[in-house]
Amino acid sequence: MNGGSWRRYLLGVVRRFGYALLLRCPRCGRGPVLSGWFTVRRACAACRFRFDRGIDGYFVGAGCLNLVVAELVFAVGLLITLLLTWPDPPWNAMLIAGIPMMIAVPLLFFPHSRTIWIAFDMIFHPVETHDDDDSSEAGSGAVDDSDPSTR
Ligand SMILES: [Zn+2]
Q1: Which of 73, 114, 123, 145 is the 20 to 30 A CA-CA neighbour of 65?
Q2: Exposed e or buried b for every residue in 20-38, given b needs 16+ CB within 10 A?
Q3: Hey, what's the torsion of the CAs at 112, 30, 34, 47, to 10 degrees?
Q4: Residue 84 reports pLDDT greater than 70
Q5: Confidence (pTM)
Q6: DSSP 8-state class, residue 124
Q7: How close is the Cα of 114 to the center of ligand 1, in Å?
Q8: Ligand 1 mean position to 141 CA, how many Å?
Q9: How far, in Å, CA of 77 to CA of 73, rounded?
């Protein structure tokens, strides 16, 4: 890739993450990804991009991302509290605040973990025609991953 195509590629990646933060389809930015706080739509209503890419367990990575974010929020909060209150940290208050925080953060971040995961996956797994909902349903243009002899 030359400099111009790298810049265009990076702008595309940044744009996809921007759409993901807005809970919009990372491919087109128009359709909503979720139909409820915990429910990912099957496909984009605008461009028909299939959000699970047709892969069983696709959102396991989103669950891991959600866990990592919750742990990071806890670790940063712990570090800031220790730095601000050392040498006498409020251990009991930290315990009382930390437990509900570790429950609330994954619940609050759940929708973004899904959309950010899709945008992240698109970096390593570029969109192809079989990622569209209509082609995978009809079978036209779909890649059959079940037969290893075709690879
Ligand atoms: Zn879309």
Answers
A1: 145
A2: beeebbbbebebebbeeee
A3: -120
A4: yes
A5: 0.81
A6: H
A7: 15
A8: 19
A9: 6
